[in-house]
Amino acid sequence: MIKKFLFTALFLVLFSPLFAQTYITNVTVADVEKQKLIPNQTVIITNDLISKIQSTKIKIPANATVIDGKGKYLFPGLTDSHVHFFQNGGLYTRPDVINLRNEVPYEKEMKLAHQTMEDKLKRYLQNGITNVIDVGASYSYLKQRELFKNKEYASSINMTGPLLTTYEPEIYKNLKDEAPFSLVKTVDDGIKMVQEQLPYGPDFIKIWYIVGADGLETEASARKNLPIIKAIIDEAHKNNLKVAVHATERITAQLAVENGCDFLVHSVDDEIVKDDFVQLLKKNKTVLCPTLEVSNGYENTLGQKLKISNHELQTADPFQLGTLLDLRHLSDTVLVNKYKKHMNSEKEIARMTKVNTISSENLKKLADAGVLIATGTDAGNIGTLHASSYLNELIAMQKSGMSNWKIIQASTINGAKILNKENIFGTVSVGKKANLILLNANPVDTIENFSKIDRVINNGVVFKPESIIEETPLALVQRQLNAYNLRNIDAFLEPYAEDVEIYNYQDKLIEKGKAEMRKNYAAMFEKVPNLHCELLGRIVQGNTVIDKERVQFGKEIVEAVAIYHIENNKIKKVYFID
Fold this sequence. Notes:
Layout: H1 2-14, E1 21-31, E2 36-46, E3 49-54, E4 65-68, E5 73-76, E6 78-83, H2 106-115, H3 117-126, E7 129-134, H4 139-144, E8 156-159, E9 163-165, E10 181-183, H5 187-197, E11 204-208, H6 218-238, E12 242-246, H7 250-258, E13 263-264, H8 275-284, E14 287-288, H9 294-302, H10 310-315, H11 318-323, H12 333-343, H13 346-369, E15 372-373, H14 390-399, H15 404-411, H16 413-417, E16 436-439, E17 453-458, E18 461-463, H17 465-468, H18 473-485, H19 489-493, E19 496-504, E20 508-512, H20 514-527, E21 532-541, E22 544-553, E23 556-567, E24 570-577
Parallel strand pairs: 1-4, 1-5, 6-7, 7-8, 9-10, 9-11, 11-12, 12-13, 13-14, 14-15, 19-24
Antiparallel strand pairs: 1-2, 2-3, 5-16, 16-17, 17-18, 19-20, 21-22, 22-23, 23-24
């Protein structure tokens, strides 16, 4: 493999005039393996590969594309090592956790997940994530991923088939090609179900190592199912496939690794790991993905205590983000209040604090010891939105005590190592895929600088982030609605034109300009209790969006119609009809 890429790189250097080329000049290049920044480099991309990197002056062909990288930083594209395309990240995506099928049938949610897969991939790319690993899909998604192979706008996808599990939630039974789980009851079942996935070309096999569903205590349950786990791992390895395992208890994680698991997709969260566990992971070269934030997504959504950053409000799928706020107005108040009460109970807050503390301490201990850590979000779960949630995970990893350089390694080269693809991507190196991000600020200084993207380069094609997803009137209106319900004045005003005009229908001007809006709405966000806008209906006609709304101001409820006129990708005029 190494010889092949070196030969390709040499060929491209010698015969570069025959190929489309991009030159990034005067740029600071990140060497993520040696943890250093190399200033004043010129990086040459020929077709989809990095063909040359040098510091001396270079003659640039007249027909080449040139990007001035002065004051900018070139990093490998990021990898999210734990996503699920069959889940959308919104409120209705996990009916086994909260059953809201009376509000949104699960069949509709499954269909939506397929329809929005392209949008998800574009959002990953927009956020500098050029590679994703789906650690629990279905046969239908293994088929659908083929549509996106080598698409310039799509992050590359590595994917497993259905999760092999000794416990299957009722809702996911009998879904055929859509099933994200395959129930394994015996050793023979485990072997057979690995073999069933092979014709679909999975990149690896995934086990959902769930304990306690059989009524046994944790260790007894883990050991009872161990022969099945071992049989699956052995059969996968026999077919040259690595194995990822969901194991959140120390005992399940330990047994999985002792029996050949290659990739632990979550932190151990039930106890602080001991040195023998750390050494076991190091010896076996097991990669661990901590997914620190996913549980908080459930807690904060179902407990109705969401705090969503401006970054997420601007880059997430606005419609899935909007569903996370629906609990404020759903008709099944008994169910909603039950979840809210539980998630905000003293007992549950103490439990989650303990889980978060253990997970964080374990990550720091493992990272300091040299265990391979890979950044992953578990995106698709309720409250963990695709692509936009990545920054939250980086910040959580930093809070655990990991250095920024180690987080950067976890987000680049270590993601490639999961599937032995470190010779293909993961560093800025000659011969590797030109999957890169050009940043306006240095993430070694501040990890949040990964959001300050000047350009994304995918398979050698250069994108401005704002060009990847087309702005629409509908998205603009939904973004301001989300921010309104979160009382976020900056995010609320972002979709509006600077000289926006607000009217009472038909022509009575009541506000003009963002400054006046800021003054009035900021005061309302600060002072009005129980503020919430429920969307009752929506019509989109060209650049006009008409929303029927029910708005709660404290104890008062008002129904109104808002007509939004969009010009130059901003909300230019709004008409309210009471």
